[in-house]
Amino acid sequence: MNGDDGGEAVASSAGPPPPLEWKFSQVFGERTAGEEVQEVDIISALEFDKTGDHLATGDRGGRVVLFERTDTKEHGGNRRDLERMDYTVSRHPEFRYKTEFQSHEPEFDYLKSLEIEEKINKIRWCQMANNALFLLSTNDKTIKFWKVQEKKVKKISEMNVDPSKAAGNGGVANASVSAGPNNNLANGSYLDQSYNCLSKDASFPPRVISSLRLPVVVTSNEISLVAKCRRVYAHAHDYHINSISNNSDGETFISADDLRINLWNLEISNQSFNIVDVKPTNMEDLTEVITSAEFHPTHCNTLAYSSSKGSIRLIDLRQSALCDSHSKIFEEQEAPGSRSFFTEIIASISDIKFAKDGRHILSRDYMTLKLWDVNMDSGPVATFQVHEYLRPKLCDLYENDSIFDKFECCLSGNGQRVATGSYSNLFRVFGCAEGSTEATTLEASKNPTRRQVQTPSRTSRGLSSTITNAVRRAGADSPGVDANGNSFDFTTKLLHLAWHPTENSIACAAANSLYMYYA
Q1: Buried-state track 334-358, b at ≥16 Cβ within 10 A, e below 16
Q2: Pick from 117, 109, 115, 26: which is nearest to 63 by CA?
Q3: pLDDT tens digits for 102-120?
Q4: Which of 37, 194, 383, 428 has the maximal Cβ count within 10 Å?
């Protein structure tokens, strides 16, 4: 997947990489036994920056929390440089709390009589500048551009100016000021009427003012992190924003709702361009909506968006101002006789991600992960069954609305593995290199393999798999239990996770807790 034919040939001859052995690294916001989770504390967005040195989370209370990596800072360099210098680096990435700020507040749309939640839907990092961090955060309606910068704290060291110290502060007072104990006057009083205030002598009247009370401000070594909202991009979406994505040009980004995708310039907050509009003339004719959108990682003119019908459309901004027609469409052909009431619901794609090289797209629908080659639109190159054991329970899932849960997905930096979440606070990691049978199930806890049951991956081929030589890998198929043979819990679901851009490290959100693992 790295686009290097020679490298791929070597990798294929050597066989697929061995399965990773995942270990617990850290947890932030761990719950104690029996502790009730507050709704506003539940994590709703998660994102590493491009360097992997910073991690941002957003929650339902509208807050953004930033974490920074500490294991490389101790030696003052990045991991690659340290390895060249033979430094002994930490065995895995370690993070610490950096700062937090209130990104969004609850609002009310008086024209539509609609409450707008403060919940953070997405966070995207922007390019760093002058040692300041920049990021975009959005709720259902409003996108904000934040700058987070370290500033030295200025403090008042003392109030009374001492002549010796005052000389270094502009010479406000000098030796001619009398220090008599009883010469203080009330404001506005003046003893010596003969004193010439227009005199060239800048000293204070003799025997009148014993001391001048002025603050002496000094810059301390203490560092404070300041988050400042630089721009607000509002009033451009009639429906809830489900995606934002930065362009590789560093100047523009897109925001997507159910029916439209808008293109913004980071510097201009009062104007956006509508580049995709799927709203029909008659809303009764509406058959599908936009569910996710993302820019290509290197081609600034290309972006992809997914739909509720399970298709992914690739569009080229150079074709026309309004990209109603796509350059490519990726969708899987339905097997004959397999259609049911739930077919279209579970086909809806909840998240798409480009691989780092831009060659592949990973998509997540309710039941599966699919890997697509942008050069082959006949079908996915690989399909991974996330929780096939739920298929007999689709009716129950529909009744409790769990079937509409939006699970995210992620790829490793080298493109050899993919990951996504499931219920019971479980997440799954699959190997997507040719010949790989890696299919690991982990639990978001301090012992990720506690509920692990080793089950051989099963390969099955359907109609579309035969056409595209796709590989389907599945876990256990017992209808009453999850992949590990445990009872199933719909209330605990792992929707959000992110893979470190350069290392085998995963951050995942389980309710209000942030768990981190490494391999």
Answers
A1: eeeeeeeebeebbbbbbbbbbbbeb
A2: 117
A3: 999 999 888 888 899 999 9
A4: 383
